[in-house]
Amino acid sequence: MRDGFRLYRSDPFQYGLCMGYLMAHWRGTYSLSRSLWINFVALRIAVYFALAGLLVFEFIPLSAFVVLIATDIALFTWQVVGLIRSCEAHIAGHGSLAPVWGSYLVIVLTLFVFGTLWLGLFQHTIPRKVEEPFSTRMEREHASTYKLTLSDDKATLTLDGDVALGSTKAVRRLFSENPSIRSLVLNSTGGNIYEARGVARLVREHGLDTHIDGECSSACTIIFISGKTRTMAAAARLGFHQYRLDTTAYVHNTYIPNVDIAAEQERDRSFFERQAINQRFLDKIFKSPHSDIWFPARDELLAAGVITQ
User: Fold this and answer.
1) Domains in the chain, number
2) Nearest CA to 115 among 78, 80, 76, 84?
C-alpha cells in the first residue's frame, strides 16, 4: 500500500500527479467507495450540470456537439472501466457482491440519464425555423390588402385597397415622417370600421383634405367625411349602407366579438352630424339595406354637405 492505494507493478504516479490519478483509477487501484462516489458519481453530477447548462442555447454547432460528446464519452469510458475494475478488486478482496451490483445499477442508470441528455443536446444542433410572431404575421397579411403611396412632392397620400387592421398604424407613421402631407386620396371599398375611425381621427388631427379618385364605400366613407375639404373625381363613386358584422366573425351560431351594431352605427352618425352632413341624408344612409350599397348622385352629395365642392 502507498498513501491508501494498492500498487501494480509500476507506480502510476511516476507519470505525474494528474496522469497518475487517471491511471490509478483506470487500473482499479482505488477502493470501490472512492471509485464509485468520487470518481464516478460526483464527477458525473458535475458533468451533467455543465452539459445541461448548454441547453439554454437555441442552437449548438454540430462540430462543438461532436467534440463535447466525444470528450464526455471518453471520460465516461474511463470512469466505467475504472469502476468495474475496482468492483473486481473488491470481490477478490472482500467477496461482497451487494456494493458491486449497486455500482453496476448506478452505471446503467447514469447511461440512461446521459443518453437522454446527449440526445437533447443533439436536437439543439438542428437549425430551427424561426416562427414569425402571430401579431407580426397578421399585420403583414393585412398590409398586403392595401397600398399607401406618397406623391413626389410628399403633399398627398393615397390609400388603395382595404381599410385593414394595421392601416391606422401605417398611416400614422407616414404622417409622422412626412408632416408636409396635406391631403388623403381614397380608393377603397371599405374594411374595418375601427381602423377607419383611427385613420379618420388622424385626418382630423392634421386638418387634411380628402379626395376620391375611384370608389370609396362602406367604412371608407368614415375617412372621407373626416376631411376638411371633401372632393371627388367626376367618375368617382361614394357608397353607403347599414352596418353589419363581417360573416367571418360568425362562429358556431354566435357572433364574435359581441358588438352592438345599433350603438356603433349611432356613434358614426353623430360624427357625420358634427361634420355638417344633412339629417335627411343621414336617415337615408342608415336605412339602406346592409346587403346593398347606395351610391348617391353627385348633386345629392353636394346638397347634403358630403362633398364640399
Assistant:
1) 2
2) 76
